[in-house]
């Protein structure tokens, strides 16, 4: 019975530790420019920018700053 208690304890601890997942909240802003229709840029929750669901591999802040430097207007959304 001791072995069964250890296995059960291990399983419970495993489930508790690995069942918690990161929040899936995203911060998104709308951007537009004279050359494009309005589009949405989101922070994927890991700090990277995503556009149309595609991870850009670039920091959200850096990506938005680059868009604005290129003439895009980005704001709340």
Key phrases:
single chain; 77 residues; alpha+beta; 5-stranded antiparallel β-sheet; 2 helices; 5 strands; 36% strand; rod-shaped
> Largest sheet at a glance?
5 strands, antiparallel
Strand line-up in the sheet with most strands: 4-3-2-1-5
Mean pLDDT: 82
Following the backbone from N to C, one meets helices and strands in this order, namely: HEEEEHE
Provide the gyration radius in Å: 21 Å
Coarse shape = rod-shaped
Number of strands: 5
Gap from first CA to last CA: 58 Å
Number of helical runs? 2
Which percent bin holds the helix content?
Answer: 25-40%
Describe this structure in words.
The longest helix has 17 residues, at 2-18. Strands 4-3-2-1-5 form a five-stranded antiparallel beta sheet, with helices on one face. The protein is rod-shaped. Strand 3 and strand 4 (54-59) form a beta hairpin. It has a domain at 25-77. By secondary structure, it is an alpha+beta fold. The chain contains two helices and five strands; from the N terminus they run αββββαβ.
Tell me the layout of helices and strands.
Layout: H1 2-18, E1 27-33, E2 36-43, E3 48-51, E4 54-59, H2 60-69, E5 73-75
Antiparallel strand pairs: 1-2, 1-5, 2-3, 3-4
Précis, in short:
This protein is an alpha+beta fold and 77 residues long. It has helices spanning 2-18, 60-69, and strands at 27-33, 36-43, 48-51, 54-59, 73-75. The relative contact order is 0.17.
């Amino acid at each position: 019975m001791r072995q069964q208690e250890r296995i059960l304890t291990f399983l419970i601890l495993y489930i508790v530790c690995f069942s918690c997942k990161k929040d899936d909240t995203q911060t998104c802003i709308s951007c537009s420019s004279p050359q494009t229709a309005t589009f949405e840029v989101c922070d994927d929750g890991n700090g990277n920018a995503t556009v149309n669901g595609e991870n850009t591999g670039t920091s959200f802040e850096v990506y938005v700053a680059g868009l604005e430097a290129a003439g895009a207007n980005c704001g709340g959304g």
